[in-house]
Amino acid sequence: MNIAYILNSYPQPSHSFIRREIRALEAQGHVVTRLAMRAGDMALVDTQDLEEAAATQYVLRAGITALLHAVFQNFCADPKRFARALKLAIACGRRSESGILKHLIYMVEGAYVVQVARAAQATHAHAHFGTNAASVAMLSQALGGPDYSFTVHGPEEYDAPRALSLGTKVQRSKFTVAITSYGRSQLSRWVGPDHWSKIKVVHCGIDAARFPTPHPLPDGSMRFVAVGRFVEQKGQLLALEAMSDLLKSHPTSHLTLIGDGEMRGEIEGRITHLGLGDHVTLTGWLDEDQLLEELQKAHALVMPSFAEGLPMVIMEAMAAGRVVIATYIAGIPELVQQGETGWLVPAGDAGALAQAMAEMADTAPQVLEQMTKAARTRVLARHDVDAEAAKLAALIAAP
């Protein structure tokens, strides 16, 4: 099949799951045209991300003349269809915080996407996230482009379902993907039961070949690693509070924070305030090989998030043979099992997080080894990228 992938900002360091999905589809013989509205706003350090950037067409780089020409051609081809699409854009804009003007811009982008999709002979369009990209996919379909589907990850989409017209996007889609059963339940809240059957679960996938036999757990002091954008919902500040508590009973423990973002200054300030300078390392963003190396140096991944879908790094840590200490939210308990593959704690509770980290540190090595094997087995069975890409392809190909 020829598939157009419609994305907002691509590639991004935190969106490696999209890259893996696209490449798995290509490995299965499908042709994928990458269409992003704009380049990502984060520096790219991974060679594979740089390759993806070179392979991506950026809609806004086409320039205003090309975009308006696409609109004019679309209008001339079918004025009535154009009017219906315009009505849809205005209706969605009225519900949205971004307003009508933004949705008219999405419609302009959608008109250009129609042209590119036709030139590429794309028979289907797939978007990631229920935000801008899904709006462009929906409006391009309304303008005569291919049928579309989109993957909803959360948590952002679940914060503003009405403003994002999630119900409308699901109703008009060929099918909609949730990455967890929890996600499917949330999407089912915004459409009637007649549309529930088109909400499918396709997990984000990992490349098992990247995770050979795991390294043994390291000797010595407990080493934890946390990965994610430095934003409120990822809970790094809570992890620092937990570390301060943990050091009272395990004074040589260490935490590595991988990532970057708008809260870096606040995180650095809290590290200083709590006197954690010798116990916390900030690495910035790392490429996939460097991330795997850091996981292999650690005993466990810590995910203190307040809101999530199902983080890719949890899958990667389990595939690398590491247990996970995470908050009991969203789709995380569908993968992480308390006492079997890791620990689950209430979100926002630094004391509970510190207690779980201490329990992990006090667990007998042979028990931890059993847990790491169970974690690896579970994630490889549920999140193989080739199997999940094949599921997505089957949904696209279905009549």
Automatic annotation (TrEMBL):
Keyword Transferase applies: yes
Protein name in the entry: Glycosyltransferase involved in cell wall biosynthesis
Glycosyl transferase family domain segment(s): 214-377
One Pfam family named in its UniProt record: Glycos_transf_1
The entry's keywords: Transferase
GO MF annotation list: glycosyltransferase activity
Domain of life, source organism: Bacteria
Listed InterPro entries: Glyco_trans_1 (IPR001296), Glycosyltransferase_grp1 (IPR050194)
Keyword Kinase tagged: no
